[in-house]
Amino acid sequence: MTISRKALFAVAMAVIALAQTGVLAYMATDRVQLLRDGREITLPVETIYVYPGDPLRGDYVQLMYPVGRVPLNVLEDAKARRNEVFYVVLERRNGNPWQPVEWHRSMPLPDGADRLVMRGRSDTATPIPSHRLPLIRYGIESYVVPQGEGEKLQAASRSKKLAVLVAVDKGGNAAIKGLIIDGKLQYEEPLF
Amino acid sequence: MSWYRTRVEGDLAKWQSAGWVTEAGVAAIKADLASRRPTIGAATIFAVLGAILFGFAVMSLANWNAMSKLARLSLLLAALWACYGGAAYVFARRLEAFAHSAVLGGIAVYGAGIKLVAQMYHMHGNPPDADLLWALGALLAAVLARSRAALAAALVLLSSWARLERELSADPHWIFLAPWVAAIAVAASLRWRPGLHLAALSLLTWLVPLGYYALDNHAHWVVVVIGGGIALTGAGLTVPAIERRVGVSQAVIAYGLAVAFAGLYIMQFVDDIALFGPRDAQPLGQVAALAAVTLILLVGAMYLALATDNRGLLWLAFAAFALQIFSLYSRMVGTQLETSLFFLVAALFAGVLAWAAYRLHLRQARASEASA
Questions:
Q1: What is the rounded distance in angstroms from the CA atom of residue B207 to the CA atom of residue B219?
Q2: What tens digit of pLDDT does each residue of B160-176 get?
Q3: How far is CA B295 from CA B156, B266, B285, B342, in A?
Q4: Which of A126, B73, B179, B350 has its CA 20 to 30 A from that of A21?
């Protein structure tokens, strides 16, 4: 074994470690940026499912939003594959909660004060039965809370007092910033 | 001691007593065998095991809420750098096996890191993306470190990625072929034959379920046609110029048969209700024709295997034959065919096989006599 082979291997190790560190750092900073700089909106929760966890993991909750139900008739060509990426336009009228009004395959016009785009993926089987409303996942459908607190959230959702504070960036990516119970922000997600 | 060395030493004793090999020759061959380093030793196995367990340890860290996100991430990155730094250190001390397990440990930590960040920040965009990122990281390590273990990890992760993506999107997911081709190129450049087999198996995990996702979602004939195509390609590779260099034709034929049989099997016994209706009302003619095609294919494969001394193909065809007969039996028992009649047919088949094998044997014996 020559010295250059050792050096070559060491360089290879450094390149691999740098590349992988880069990927992880990008994932984290991208997310922090979204949480910090994204536009804040409040989305009411329709249904919540709680999966009891353990002291280390906490309770895993699954959240369903009214904005996840996008009417088929507002899709450009009324056909969607499963897990296809869509840009859903949400609108807020007269202080009512955000409503999905259009969905597109590419990024539509920029946001306004009462208009905003969220990127999601379709969650239904092909072909979509025309009588049902397809579900869109925005990547904000699950969350982990400390063990035992899932039930509290369930009670709040039953009395329609549960909402989620969501950050949305220019590309329509969404992230949960915290949960809101009865108008008060709880479980605010720390950035670091 | 490797099985190869044990076998050669056993044969050497015979050859020496027959007077074909001199005593000096025996000593030289034994010395050569002894000088070869074992490819997989106990130390390597334990080191690889340690690397994988280390990965699991880091993955459990992802759930540890007592630490801040930054602390968890820092700890993880420190583990990542320790793995690759350690790899470089032990490589410099000529402990290559340990260096490669450290690389594998690094890949495990990297994958745990992806899961950790995704979990800490509640990222649920498209779960298969995590596996793809992980697989590409492993592939990079396989290329740069010329690491076989990293390549194996990359192939497993690529298969897992394709499976997740397929199930989520209900789509054949053709893009899988792109990183797969890259992986098989890496296997070839590492001159690692088991890596080629692993790549073939990874392709199989993508090809066999393809019928469920292509065309009308029950297009298993596509799988049969592709399997046949692979087998024919394998037969085409028997060109001496290629065969001398890589010697893959026999394996390619065997994998082609495996794919074609899997497609036929799914048509007959797994997805048959969608294809032919409820089990007690399936058209007997079609079902029987499909079974006949399968059995003829398998007998043909056995014949080819015997004629070309393709041991892998022979065992595969035997196993497939047994599975086919057993599945037919389970299906038919108590319905259309009486048990005894069924076994009679199976016995006739076996008889025909034995006769074919005997004829082949005779012909080969005559051919070798003629050439002698």
A1: 12
A2: 999 999 888 888 889 99
A3: 32, 14, 15, 14
A4: B179
DSSP A175: E
pLDDT of residue A131: 43
Cβ–Cβ contact B215 with A under 8 A: no
Residue type at A16 in one-letter notation: I
> Which of A:127-186 have CB within 8 Å of B?
137, 139-144, 146, 173, 175-176
| Per-chain mean pLDDT for chain A | 82
Q: Check whether B156 has a pLDDT greater than 90.
A: yes
Q: What's the mean pLDDT in B311-325?
A: 90
Q: Give the Cα separation of B261 and B298 in Å (integer).
A: 8
3-state SS assignment for residue A2 = coil
pTM (2 decimals)? Answer: 0.81
C-alpha–C-alpha distance, residues A39 and A174, integer Å: 9
Helix (H) or strand (E) holding A115: strand A115-122
**Cβ contacts of A80 on chain B, cutoff 8 Å:** none
What residues 44-63 of chain B have any CB closer than 8 A to a CB of chain A?
60, 63
Where residue B69 falls among pLDDT bands split at 50, 70, 90?
A: confident
